[in-house]
Amino acid sequence: MATKSSSASYTIEARPFATSAKLVARRPVKSAPSLRPVPAFSIESLQKNTLVMGPPKAQKHKHLLQQKATSFRMYYDRGDLPIKMEYLTGGDKIAWTVDIDKLDYGLYLPLFFDGLSEIRHPYKTYARQGVQDLISHGGDKIYPVIPQLIIPIKNALNTRHIEVMCVTLRIIQQLVMASDLIGPALVPFYRQLLPMFNAYKVKNINSGDAIDYGQKNNLNVGDLIDETLQVLERHGGEDAFINIKYMVPTYESCYLN
Question: What is the value of pTM for the model shown?
Answer without folding.
Answer: 0.68
